[in-house]
Amino acid sequence: MACPAPIHLLRFPQWQGSDAHAHLAGGRAAAAIVESVLQPSSVSAVPIFEAENSCDPGVDAKGQSQCVRHLEAITRQARVARAQLDELPPSARVFTCGGDCGVEVVPVARASRLWPGLAVVWFDAHADLNTPASSPSGHFHGMPVRTLLGDGPPELLQLLPSRLEPSQLIYVGARSLDPPEQDYVDSHAVTLLSAEPASSLPDRLSAALRKGRFGAAYVHVDLDVLDPSSFPHAVARALAELLLPRPDPPPPAPMSLSPPAWPAHYRPIAHEPFGDGGQATLDTLARYVEADQPVVLTGADIVDVERWSDNAKVEALLGDKAEASLSFGEFLAEAERLAAGDSAERLYLQETMSGHPELAEEFRSWNWPFLLQNSNRHRWGLPDSNELFIGMQGAETDAHYDERHNLFFQATDT
After folding, report:
1. Which of 127, 232, 366, 371 is found 20 to 30 A from 282 (Cα to Cα)?
2. Domain range holding 152?
């Protein structure tokens, strides 16, 4: 019996191709989840270098723009990725977890060298077919496919061991093409598959692969291919006229607001032990969710609450940045001043932790399998934000309704 090919996970949270730092923290968190689920034979991580915006979109003496933002850092990272993949045996299958779409140039080129003439199936709302001259933004995440075809920045082309032909491309769900990209698709008869209707997509994709007589395929998935009304978390979202359309929802039923007093049937919120976080815990939580009742799971190990109950450690995590009117240190000092006096004023801190690359390692330490299992089981959708709430004793927020499902982790009650 043949042994399965080893799987190598390439962790590559590049952000410079899109100029969106969310790709850094999000890519690292996603790679941690993928690693726990995929259980790869080996793993390597591409270091992400500091980058300055070394150019601005403009035109050269010939009237063409040649700007690729952060090209030096992107090239250095691609060089490291090439060195890491060159150390793998030819039988290794590479699973790349980004990052922006620019991370694909080295893995796809490797696959093309090992399996000449393979199909490249590109699930993406965008074609990524711009050149440095045609790109309106200078962002490399719109250029990786054209680079693989041999029309990219020379600094990257010299790192690629092979080139693609237009006949190897199969796009799925592409619906936001710049005019130069559309011209290239039309002039080279590139295969475009609509995602509509979804029920026939597997058959249509299989037919395209058979027509091309492909013996192997590399599959790229950009999450912006999903309908943004059901998955709004992609960095570069595109309208979804062709992708998984849904009928208009029925009008909402009239709302009846409760009086500003506790309902007569109010009773204390139930407490249940978290246990080992296994099936018994999932079933316990499901029982309360299905009954639309809140529950406190005691002793959970999803987040390291000890780290978040130590003010000094929280301040070290958040740093000195003040995105509102106070930094965390200033908030603590003001809260202590108010608590020591006779003032009835109370401070309450609410800080989003999304978009903070310095918290990536903290997020990786969380029990994501438990969170995702619950989200999938109850159709909550993927977690889309993390927030920190800190209030002085006696601080209260106005009663309000949250549209999203919340999981709260209480670090301390003192």
Report:
1. 232
2. 7-225
